Fold this protein.
Amino acid sequence: MMKTCARIIGCVALLAVSVDVFGQSNSLLSCENDERPGVRAFCKDLKDFQNAVNAGTATTVDNSSGPLNKLDMSHAAATDKFITATAPLIAAKAALSSVASKAVASGALQDAGQTRLDRQLGPTSDASGTTTLVSKAGSAELLSLALDTGVLTQSVNGATATLSTNADQLFRLVTGNDPDCTVTCDSLGWFEDRVLNRTNISASLDLAQQSSTTVATSGQASGTTPVQVSNAAIPTAAGKLSGIIARYQIRNRFDPRSPQFREKWQKEVQSSASLRSAVINLQAATNEVMKMLTANASKTAPLDRANALAAAKRDPTGKALFDFFNTYFSSAADVVTQAKKLNDAILVVMPLRAVYRDAWFKTLDDAVGTLFTLEYNYNRPVNQPQTHDFKLIYGYNFHTMGMLTFNGAVSIYGGMIPVGAKYGRVHYGQVSTEYDRTLSGKDKSVQTQFSLAGYWQYQPNPSILNIPAGTVAPGTNIQLPNGTQEFVGTAGSLWVTQTKLTIKAAGGINIPIGVSWSNKTDLLQGSKVGAQVGISYNFSSLAGLITGSGQ
């Protein structure tokens, strides 16, 4: 409450003192995505100091000592962010010769989320290329790319590429606001917590299926047939958008940003031996950097606190302070990082941060309980009407016994229903369930996950096939002048079962391999046995290297 009040007072004071000669107010500049690594890493501390100066609570060097300590490389309070700002540069310089840098890269690329059973990375069951029969409650932490080949409920096989992202983590990556954080995420308010954090978006592209477009013709190029063809159907390129999925997680015990998980985290710190060990090792390594950094900086790179205060007073927008600090940080970093022992110590911290993350994700096993997600799917199947699918996803994690997931969905036709159509809005309703369990040890670099799923779908009418204009009627040379729709297949129940083995390699790579049986498909009658295979990559494991963060 006091911090909030101070910020409010600071904003009021800023408006009062930052009016220029034209009567226009100056506002504090943003620095979260500043291109200068020092300014970006220390952004919050710089803004807090500038706000304190603008509010009149920091008027001298003496009463500004607290905020200035966080900006002074010779003070312990600046150590953690100094590591964050300088580690990528040090690792890059050492990449050609340093064995330690390889350990940094290896540690940063470890995807601790590989042990999770709740993530949906590929397309849903109604895609022409999919390995997924049942949608999971969770999604990618940052970005994921999945390539799948197979078919489960559809007749048309294909290959599908799916790009998935979490709205909040993508926002943090774009703004440079630590997308690789865990429980240390600084909240940006209600909108981030309740909307961005819980929203996941996926887009799927058909890579193998071609569609056709009807175009007008201008006359015959050759031949003697007197019949003039007014239009023709030509193929269009593959790679069209086949579906967009929006997911909102109402409840997910695996979400590290939820208040419930943060409370669970505090308890796990006390009960997890591996986590305590990771935290202790990380703290010890950070303290080692702090000792060397403060000792070197106090001799060669102390902060000129009087000039820092003068810069903040001179420009209420913070620009002068940011520029001053960037000059100071660049100079300090150049001098301090000349010490090889300090460089090596910083490189030790980075893989320990990854170890800390790995130990933290292992505590997810104890986050047993319910997961609940709402999903909307805008689906564009090949040569069929567009549909809007609404799905409820419920999951329960049984700790060491695996996870059980249930789906309930309804699909309705989109767009205008043609006049005289013999079908209504409802396409189908479906329920499905899946059991997932990790077979290999979760501490191994390569894991295997077993999945067994069952799916039931009921259609009140047979499936609809769109026949485009210009299509030649079978057995004739007569082109259909207008597009038409036909019932294909049968109404009633569609049953599908699937057994799947997912190989989870280090670094966020997943390879699902499935075998399925169905009594029919959407367009064809008769039972079918099929195989599905895919590969996905979870880009969240790279966020630490992109931003230099790892906590």
